[in-house]
Write a sequence for this structure.
């Protein structure tokens, strides 16, 4: 659980650009997972379902400004231009340095799906003029 927590926290912090907000989002996601643990284990992918809970918690913990999400953070560019699974895979692989296999394990999917998603993400990012491989916009 420690390894997953570390990766969850890195993902949440990268998306939210703030360690405290990242930690709050991870805590929220893990609380929801604990409350639904039996259902998660009965489903087709407990890791995948937990990943969706994390993604939802991160979205819910984005700062708000006047009822709207705060100024777009650089890493959110991924999530504005790519479908969520592709953006997540690109963030985990390119920005956080996870292998495609490790990203897939964390997201509860197959490595081949992540590999294909990374290729698609790189093409889509190139189409909108954003850097891809190894140069996903950071936070800062």
């Amino acid at each position: 659980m420690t390894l997953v927590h570390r990766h969850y926290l890195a993902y949440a912090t990268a998306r939210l650009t703030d360690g405290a907000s990242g930690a709050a989002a991870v805590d929220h996601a893990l609380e929801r997972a604990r409350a639904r643990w039996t259902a998660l284990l009965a489903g087709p992918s407990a890791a995948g379902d937990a990943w969706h809970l994390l993604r939802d918690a991160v979205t819910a913990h984005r700062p708000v400004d006047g009822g709207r999400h705060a100024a777009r953070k650089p890493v959110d560019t991924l999530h504005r231009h790519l479908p969520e699974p592709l953006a997540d895979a690109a963030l985990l692989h390119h920005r956080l340095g996870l292998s495609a296999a490790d990203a897939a394990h964390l997201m509860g999917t197959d490595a081949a799906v992540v590999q294909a998603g990374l290729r698609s993400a790189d093409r889509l990012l190139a189409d909108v003029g954003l850097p891809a491989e190894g140069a996903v916009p950071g936070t800062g």
The helical segments are 2-16, 19-35, 37-42, 46-60, 76-81, 84-95, 100-107, 111-127. The first strand starts at residue 64 and ends at 65. The chain has eight helices and two strands. The longest helix spans residues 19-35.
